[in-house]
User: What shape does this take?
Amino acid sequence: MPSTTPPPWWRSAVIYQVYIRSFADGNGDGVGDIAGLRSRLPYLKSLGVDALWINPWYKSPMADGGYDVADFRAIDPLFGTVADAEQLIEEAHGHGIRVVPDIVPNHTSDQHAWFQAALAAGPGSPERERYVFRPGRGPDGAEPPSNWISEFGGPAWTRLPDGEWYLHLYAPQQPDLNWQHPDVHAEFESILRFWFSRGVDGFRIDVAHGLAKDPELPDLTREQLVHPHWDRDEVHDIYRAWRKVADEFEGDRAFVAEAWADTPERLAAYVRPGGLHTAFNFDFLMASWDAKDLRTVIDDSLAMLNAVGAPATWVLSNHDVMRHTSRYARKTVARWLPNERYQPQGPVDLDLGTRRARAAALLMLALPGGAYIYQGDELGLPEVEDLPASVLQDPIWERSGHTDRGRDGCRVPIPWSGQTAPFGFSPDDASAEPWLPQPADWSERGVEAQTGDETSVLELYRTALRLRRGNPALGDGTMTWLDAPAGVLAFRRDPGFVCVVNLSAEAYPLPEHATILLAAGPVANGLLEPDSAVWLTV
Assistant: This one.
């Protein structure tokens, strides 16, 4: 007899990413906050998303936009209080929306109480064992303990006045924790329980492929078969313990891993039974605008995840990469590799990028599994590629010696209403400008301007999410490819749903169908134009 228990929500969820600094400013200081997010919950409900992933809101000096956490049990005053967070969780649940905050287990802030105690205690102390401190190399210890490189540029080691070095795979203000130490395990399990008991529905795990390091800290070489600090097998013991913590609480609490892995097989290891629930599919995000490449990514991802019983989780943009409207705005969209930063090539054609982004949204939302929408994707926002150097705040800009502009271009506060900045991001009586400047032409891209316009990106997303929620063929499940020429993707999902995406340079005749449910662009004379997509019933 078939089970009548509904599948867990996270197997099909559409989760909206809130980069809280740039979503909505409630108190007028130019920075988004919990009050602003609470005021926009009705919008998120009308959009049709199932959950919110909220980037770090914990107490932080903000050396890396909140990913340098000083206290995991406190909300930074810039965003509100723990009581505000509890109110947000309650109100979101009242709208039928779940809440999934970030957790940052690879490192802390250098202002965290543990690290400050380690600095005060000195070399050889128990306090330093919670982090990765080592003596330097060379006769006087003046050389770093290894040749590891920071993700933000420069060496991954900083020397202290007492002669010891500490590891930071990101900024110097983000010292790496030592996950071989039992205190670290116990502390994070306690942090999870603290927030689970306050109603959060899960966590997005930052740098989930980090944490474990080779204790010998060997130099990086091209010959290494196992990386000394990325995607090591030891991390899975950590997440099996976390899964047990989540299972202590009612309500299908869930984790999603930000895990950059070299192969689909390595990614699938994070979501094996007893491990994490889901993991971002970065191969899909990194794919070129090419039917063959996308089909390979889709097939490989589904095969590996199905083998371990996990759903796929598709994503096009986030706070760390160039917005896909701008990636797709280049005639040639190159594929890039894990742990590389995307380098766009060629002139920008935002009309082209918007057409492709609309098509990509229908593809993503039709695939089996869940999906993530980065705030502003539903508005068709492009990357802001011309921010003045004087306003850049991402540590990548400084650490790279001003050769890499970093990630600020995808983090500009989103527009809501009005003809001039701050476009409803801040209240009318705001005391400060938005923390990053908004382009003057964003008035036409705001929520107010797009609402009710059937041709807008926003209404495309609203319709797609409404149809997705009401169609039994969509969400978790299976798919079957249909015959199609080179440059075209076509697949069926039962009962009676077909998605067609035309990535070729020629119009494509639609297959036999009963009705057109939704199209990314005009469909005339039964032809699907290049760089477009359509949902059909059959």
Observations:
- The two ends are 29 Å apart (CA to CA).
- The mean pLDDT is 95.
